[in-house]
Specification:
The chain has about 270 residues and is of the alpha/beta class. The protein has a domain of about 180 residues: Creatininase (Rossmann fold), CATH 3.40.50.10310. The protein is built from nine helices and five strands, in the order αβαβαβαβαααααβ. β3, α4 and β4 form a beta-alpha-beta unit. The mean pLDDT is about 95.
Length: about 270
């Protein structure tokens, strides 16, 4: 069933969802965001806004529906900044499990988990392992956006299409990339003139981003007083749209081969 309207469940009537399932379509993108510091210039809901924007685009490319993004995630390292909130990984995984169990009972069979906040990775992995045992007929895919966001291929692609250089640490937290995405979706929430100049956070990145060894850091504020790094001052809505489209294209190309065919049993787990 091909929809020409929003793919987000909270925008649709229950009858539209019923017709989607009755047509034999069973794909659902489960979205997660976060409510956390993104500096003095960007809203606390930046990750949630990005999750919704990428989720809509990804659902279109996969002919899927998408849940509204959960606005709270695991963000303990941001909670010293007022307005930021965090759940435990256990709580978040439990909620994800209950949500998926409910949708599986309605007929959804293929679930793609997508988070606009990298800190939700552990909770999603935990939830997927438990859902795989409880709902053995489901296909489960964990789509990790952060490695794509911070990788050189995406940067090169967007920079070529944009036709102008992107800033250093383009994919940084609260930096040019994320701020541009919010400008593309909710420009009234961005105060670009309040964006701080970049600071040196190499010590934080070296401690937390090495794929082989990491050290737990309990507060981003120990490394950056305004809570972000990178340079958001050059962000534009055009750059944000290019980023959102490119991420959705990349994810769709990776996810599609992992989804079982409608006529199969759907017992694979990909994470």
């Amino acid at each position: 069933m091909t929809l020409t309207t929003s793919r987000l469940l909270d925008d649709l009537s229950w009858m539209t969802v019923r017709d989607y399932l009755d047509a034999g379509d069973t794909r659902l993108v489960v979205l997660l965001g976060s409510t956390e510091n993104h500096g003095p210039h960007a809203p606390l809901g930046t990750d949630t806004i990005i999750a919704r924007a990428v989720g809509q685009r990804l659902a279109e490319r996969l002919d899927a529906l998408a849940t509204p993004p959960m606005p709270f995630g695991y963000a303990a390292h941001h909670r010293t900044f007022p307005g930021s909130a965090t759940l435990t990984n256990r709580t978040l995984a439990t909620v994800l499990g209950e949500v998926v169990h409910g949708y599986a009972a309605q007929g959804f069979e293929q679930f793609i988990f997508l988070s606009g906040h990298g800190g939700n990775r552990v909770a999603i992995d935990l939830a997927v392992t438990e859902i795989a045992e409880a709902v053995p007929h489901a296909t489960l895919v964990h789509a990790r956006m952060l490695p794509i966001q911070t990788g050189a291929p995406l940067r090169d692609q967007v920079q070529a299409a944009y036709g102008a250089p992107l800033s250093d640490f383009w994919g940084a937290h609260g930096g040019e990339q994320e701020t541009a995405a919010v400008l593309a979706e909710r420009p009234e929430l961005v105060k670009l003139d309040a964006a701080p100049p970049p600071i040196d956070v190499r010590a934080y990145l070296e401690a937390t981003r090495d794929p082989a060894v990491t050290r737990t850091e309990r507060s981003v504020a120990s490394f950056t007083p305004h809570g972000t790094w990178g340079d958001a001052r050059g962000a534009t809505p055009e750059q944000g749209r290019l980023f959102l489209d490119a991420v959705a294209d990349d994810l769709a190309s990776r996810i599609t081969p992992l989804l079982t065919r409608p006529e199969s049993t759907g017992r694979d787990v990909a994470s």
